[in-house]
Amino acid sequence: MVSRSFKTGLGVAFALAILVGCSEEELILPGERFDVRDRGEGAAVAVVEQGPGVAEGPPPSVELPPARLNASWTHAGGNAAHTIAHPVLDRELQSVWSASIGEGNSRGHRITADPVVADGRVFTKDSRALISAFSLSGERLWTRDLTPASDQSNDASGGGLAVSEGVLFATSGFGTLTAMDAATGAVRWTQALNAAATGAPTVSGDRVFVATRNGIGWAIDTSNGRILWEVLGRRGPAGLVGGPGPSIAGPLVIFPFASGQVIAAGINTGAPTWGASVAGRDATRAFSVISDLTGAPVVDSTRLYAGSHAGRVAAVSLASGEVEWTAQVGALNPIWLGGNSVFFVSPESVLTRLDAATGQQYWSVELPFFEESRANRLKSTFVHYGPVLAGGRLIVASDDGLLREFDPVSGALLSETELGRGAARNPVVAGGVLYLVTEDGQIRAFR
Questions:
Q1: pTM, to two decimals
Q2: Strand order in the sheet with 312-317
Q3: CA 302 to CA 392: how far, in whole Å?
Q4: Could you give the maximum distance between any two Cα atoms of the chain, in Å?
Q5: Is 5 helix (H, G, I), strand (E, B) or coil?
Q6: What structural domains does the chain harbor?
Q7: Using the 8-state DSSP alphabet, how is residue 138 labeled?
C-alpha cells in the first residue's frame, strides 16, 4: 500500500535543467500539441510485449470453478499460494458487525495488514503494532501489543499476518517476526530480522518465510524461531509500506524483493532455482521509480503472476523462471487469478482483465482517480483495494467509502455499497462473510 503522503507528494523530487538560448529565434514545429502528462484515451490499455495485444470483439466468459465455501483465509491472498479461486459470497451484502482494531490511518502510519481468518477467529493488526483477535460475531477475544520495550508504538508502521496450525505469525515495522498462540495471544517467540519485512509472512509446514527490505529472504523454524537459511536478493531503491510476502509453489518458495526481482528457492535447502524480474518503468509517471512488487506472487499449477508499481504485470514459468508474457501496466494491489483470467487495479485506478495464458487484454474500467479542488490542483487521490472474485463478481473496496462490484466477464459495474468510511486494506472472504478494515481502525463484516 502507498501512504497518503506518498500518493499526493510521491516523496520523490526531480531536478529539471532548463537550457535557454537567446541568440537564435525559437523554431516552432507545426502540428497538434499533446500534453505528455495526459492520461489520454488509451492510457488504461495494457500493451502486451509478448502476446497478441488487446482483444477485439466481446470478451470471452470467465472459466470459473464452482463457488466453494472456504472456512479460512490464512494468508494475504487467501492461502500460502495466494490463490483462492472462487469463494462463496451472497449477492446482497449487508453490514452485520464492526469492531475497533486499534489505531487507524494517520499522516505517519498506515494499516498494512489484511485480516486473516481461521478456527472461528478473525485476526487484525492496526497501524502501529497492536494485534487483535475477534470471534466470528465480532466479540474481542484478546489483544497483544508487539511494540518492543525499547521503542514507542508510533516509531514504526507496517507488517502483516498469517495463521497456521493454531499459531498466528506477525511481522512488524520494527523488524521482528513474532509467533503467538492463536487462541490466547500468548507470545511463543520473537525473531529479530534486522530490517522491516516487506509484507506478511508465509507459512508452509514447519517453516515460516519472510522477505525484508534489505533484500534478504528468510526461512525460520515455526516451533522456536530459529533461522534455518537465507537467500540474498537485490535491494531496491525504495519500497512500499505493506508490500508483498513470499509465495509457496510446491517444493519452492518464491521471494519478492523491492527491486522487482523474484527468486525461487527450495523450501528445505534454500538453494536458489531461478530468478526473474518484473521491474518496469512508465516514463509518464514519477511514482514508477518505485519498482517494488505490489502483492505477493500469485501461483497456479504452472505459472506465477506478479505486478509491480513501476508499470509491469508478468507471467513467469514456475519450471524455468522464464517470463512468458509481460503487460506494460502496473498493479497497485495483489493480482487475482480467476480461471482463465487475471484481474488487478493499476496505480492509475484502472480495473483490468487480462488473459492468464497470453496477457491479452479483454477490458479495462476506470475507477475514481482523483478529486480536484480547483484547476490543476488535486484535493485528494483515491486508492482501491482488491479485486477479490467471490460469489461470481469482482469486488473492489475503495477509500472513497464505497464497495463496488463488477461483472468479471465484461467489467460492467453491478452495484455499490456504502462502507461508512474509506477502505484501508484488501477485502477477505471466509465462511460466506466479507471482512474489511477501514481507515478509521474498524473491522467490518458483511454478509
A1: 0.86
A2: 298-299, 303-308, 312-317, 323-327
A3: 24
A4: 78
A5: helix
A6: 4-23+46-446 (2.130.10.10)
A7: S
